């Protein structure tokens, strides 16, 4: 009989037993939960102040050439509600605007909303600022939001981002295909009849006027309004319902830019300032051209040769030369992203307690410090939590011993569960230069555990995501989590709720589900402590092994000025300018 697996709990970190080595530089879930878990009533009060009236822009766009920026290859159709591609999200955030937008520090500030008020964190009264229009001239109304949110929840065409609406009353039956009564309780008469293509209606959404609507949640949810800046909750024009295919290729939005040539996955995608946008984040340039790259080295050559103005995907090996050449134009800034090793916990050999022990052993065999310093030239930090430090509630020592290099204990744990006969592979994306990270991890595993480990490359991030989602990829994969909105819950609920929208590990634990539900119904600081407690439980089984907290590593050419990055790692595209001649 083999010995029982040794469990290494998450908790305070002890002194690491390191093997010094230097490497050379490298080239329907939440809503159902909330409906059944009794949740305490949180404190009451207004959620947002009423902002000043919508103002006209104080600057006119520059007359110079458009700003040329990088992207990854884009999907064939425009649908920011159904993609995890960060560049689609960025572009959508420039073309569409919701009730809120996020400032550089991640704070939600009113955009289309004049006010969002609640006295109990359950019923929210929304009033839209006057004067908002889509780029085709159609007014932005309460119906524009309610119809868009109903569409997001519609089970006919499930969307990856629909769990953003999980707390809203009626989400469970609509998502399950049994919507019940209409979301629009106001008798608006025959004029309220909806064109073909409208979706089943959420009971918790009620239009009360042309610029007012009510959001009713299943249970109180303090902080709910923070998610309302996500672009998946932006309003939609009529064409999105009457001719969805046209909208997917020629999107119409209410943001500071429009797409004059429509959406295309081929070649450069141009964005130009929208004359109908008159709010607080106007375009100060003549436009943004997104140029897709699959080869970071080629993109860097284009920056040096003056064909690309802004590049935010850099190989760590290029940083020393870039710092010497571009000086202050090189940015190295912590952002809301974290990288981990995600395991399919429902597949052998990663199932059960033995699988958890194997994941813990691998975690303790990885030299994170060498990854951060030698592989990534200090553009990464050692991860100690499932969320990065820029997120409120991050813990500097949550993972403890399980995330500390200790080859001897790692080997002992792995031997206790029969090892890893046959070894394993790690899938990764080549277009964001993940190969060196996987090579280094596998070198650690081979050296410390004597287990065969090889990388399995995918040409693009989208190809890897598709393979994981479809089940074609059956092994662990390198996964970088981008902050959806600036709360700790955004790193936990989608990934670790039993049927969370980005739960690609198969992790399912009713105790964790209940703990997350209770946390979401409480105010800070108790909310933060409950989320940390849920994180500790998740880390005891390690469905995702935390590795690194990510910086944005970027460079801009001398042809542009005012290039700044927000906490999400995205340039403030509207603010980038070309120096005025003369």
UniProtKB/TrEMBL annotation:
GO cellular component: ATP-binding cassette (ABC) transporter complex; periplasmic space
Alphabetical GO biological process terms: peptide transport
Solute-binding protein family domain mapped to chain residues: 108-422
Compositionally biased residues, Basic residues: 12-25
GO molecular function, one term: peptide transmembrane transporter activity
Superkingdom as given in the UniProt entry: Bacteria
Low complexity bias locations: 1-11
Bias (Basic and acidic residues): 184-196
Ranges where the record places region Disordered: 1-25, 44-68, 175-202
Matches recorded under Pfam families: SBP_bac_5
PANTHER family in the cross-refs: ABC TRANSPORTER SUBSTRATE-BINDING PROTEIN, PERIPLASMIC BINDING COMPONENT OF ABC TRANSPORTER
Protein name: Putative peptide ABC transporter substrate-binding protein
Organism field: Mobilicoccus pelagius NBRC 104925
